[in-house]
Amino acid sequence: MKKIFLLIGVVIPLLIIFVQSSSLRLLIPKPDAILNITDTDSPLILYIDNRLIGTLPLEQISVSPGSHTFSLYTVEGEEDLSIWWRDEIEVSSGDSLQIVIQSTSSDHISGIGLIRTFSSNGNDISSIFMDPNTVPVTVNGTQYTDFPVILTDVSEGTYDIATASDLYSNISLSLDIPKKTGFEVHIQLFFDYVRSVQHVSGLTIEPTLQLQLPIARRWDWQDQYLAIPAAKLLTKEWKFIDVYQMALPTMTEDDETLRTLEALFVKKQSTFRLPFGFVVTEDGHIYEGMGIWDFDFSSLGLSGITSDGSKCPILILGADVSPEQQKALNFISAFITDEPGTYGEVSSDLVTKKLTTEEVSEYEVTLKNTGWSTWKTDDAHAVKFKAVGSVRADVYHPDLWESPEIASKLTDPIVLPGAETSAFIPLKAPSYPITYTQDFVLIQDDVQMRNPTISVPIEVTGAGKGIEITDTPTGFLNVRETPSFASTLIGAVYPGERYLWLETQADWHKIRLLDGTEGWVNGGFIKDI
Asked: Residue ranges of the SH3b domain (predicted)?
């Protein structure tokens, strides 16, 4: 019996001490830390050290001792993942880990807290890390502004931790800390772009166009073309501006800021584009927003943004209205009431069109609407190609052209500013060979657009020869049935028109008209081409 007591009372404790103090301790597996995630049904995916763990909510996740990187991703579209949050923390054996996700609504996460609690012998410090580190945090009513916050006198009890920011959404955590336990907290706050927009009142606006400030178009800052459903293209004449303000926590490059803002509004508010007519940065630079002239912003039904369709909402970035922004607002106020006109340009290469005599074909050209107004190509307001530079184009197609001048119209029913459209000009090669450049311009409502001339190189090959009618005292030249002034008149041709030459008798030349009729004209009023 004494031997048993000796074994229990002396030998076994000595063995335990030996194991704890020797290399044999390394052979005993250390218990993992356990991770739990508290969230509000956020559709997030957890990765640890780039290894997929699963979709939230998750509980009782084992995490081995060591340094680990925790990441939360959102799902963008069918397959793409977008990083939402990432943090790194050193984990010890037996730690308790918790990720707390708090939301202000179903579509906005206000903040994330990564909490590690660990066994403490009383000498360990507890700490709080903040991102961004400009946001104050309170712990049981005491405010801290320097980070990390170091707490050296942590004892058993409840620790209420809360952030206080006017720009960011805030987060509050409550930790129940038992005896001989310390904690490490990492807090990440998120900026709610959409809800940070505030209406600005009391501004004195003095409309003026004297400054002629430049405006960056949508395609200057947005490299993606965002379409707008035709049913949403509601317009109402702008008469006034309505000013809104957003104090951003950080300012990146202007283009990046605008792309970020637009992506957030499209995702969270389903606005299909940035819901402002213009955006003015802190230094007074003006950027086109929605990109639709006279767009009725009240049709979006956004809470807090203009409900009056005659007002153009302007977003200014920054905490205060700077003098440069005031100048920009004055300019925009006058600009929106000024008729912008229509513009277009060719965005495809104009290659030479090669044809044989009398061949029927078409010429494809890609156009970009570089104006402010939408091209609505219905019959009443169709955008059309008008041939210029001659009385009648050599490639005039009598069956498909509206007239000897109007070649065709665009077929896309709507072409928004910044959008491209493919158009086809029907061509019929003349019955004579010719190499020349046919110029076209774009017109809408019989008004020529402010755009460069579209110059199409034409090369027609084949037999035969062409002639051109020159100026005559009467402004026309008779076509007769035979080469005689006494012959029957069968038609008339006009200066600048070109025809196929067939033969010559004395001062008379036989030509073929566009309808195939052959007749004779006096040679004193023609020239070879």
From this structure: 464-529
460, 502 in Cβ contact below 8 A? no
DSSP state of 56: S
Residue 51 buriedness (CB in 10 A; 0-12 / 13-18 / 19+): exposed
Q: What is the mean pLDDT of residues 212-227?
A: 91
Q: What is the predicted pLDDT for the residue at 194?
A: 74
Selection from 97, 83, 102 nearest residue 39 by Cα:
102
Q: Render pLDDT for 320-358 as a digit per residue (tens, 0 to 9).
A: 899 999 999 999 999 999 877 788 888 888 999 999 999
Residue in the structure block whose two tokens are 């050193």: 90
Instruction: Note whether 419 and 377 are within 8 A (CB).
Output: no
**pLDDT value, residue 39:** 65
Are the C-beta atoms of residues 495 and 480 closer than 8 Å to each other? no
Spatial distance between the Cα atoms of 405 and 391, rounded to a whole number of angstroms:
8
Distance, in Å, from the CA atom of 87 to the CA atom of 70, rounded to the nearest integer, reads 5
Write the DSSP string, 437-491: EEEEEEEETTEE-SS--EEEEEEEESS-EEEEE---TTSSEEEESSSSTTSPEEE
Q: Give residue-wise pLDDT tens across range 192-211.
A: 777 788 899 899 999 998 88
Starting at the edge strand found earlier in the chain, the sheet holding 149-151 runs 61-63, 33-38, 96-105, 108-119, 181-189, 126-131, 149-151
User: How many Å apart are CA 338 and CA 213, to the nearest integer?
Assistant: 14
CB 346 within 8 A of CB 366: yes
Give the span between the Cα atoms of 172 and 464, in whole angstroms: 89
* Range picked from 119-128, 297-306, 421-430 for highest mean pLDDT: 421-430
CA distance 261 to 191: 11
Examine the pLDDT at 14 and tell me if it is beyond 50: no
Question: Going by C-beta distance under 8 Å and a sequence separation of 6 or more, which residues neighbour residue 149?
Answer: 127, 128, 130, 137, 139
Give the SS3 label for residue 206: coil
What amino acid occupies position 192?
Answer: D
Does the pLDDT at position 23 exceed 50?
Answer: no
The upper half-sphere exposure of residue 446, i.e. CA atoms within 13 Å in the direction of its Cβ, equals: 1
How is residue 198 written in tokens? 């505030």
How many CB atoms neighbour CB 191 within 10 A? 20
Work out the angle at residue 344's Cα, subtended by the Cα atoms of residues 338 and 349, and round it to the nearest 5 degrees: 160
β-bridge mates for residue 236, sequence order: none
Find the radius of gyration of the CA atoms of the chain: 39
CA 500 to chain centre: 53
Contacts for 258-262: CB closer than 8 Å, 24+ residues apart? 258/221, 258/222, 258/287, 259/221, 259/222, 260/193, 261/193, 262/222, 262/226
- The size of the chain, in residues, is 529
Half-sphere exposure of 280 toward its Cβ, with a 13 Å CA cutoff? Answer: 28
> Cα-flanking dihedrals φ and ψ of residue 397, to 5°?
-105, 105
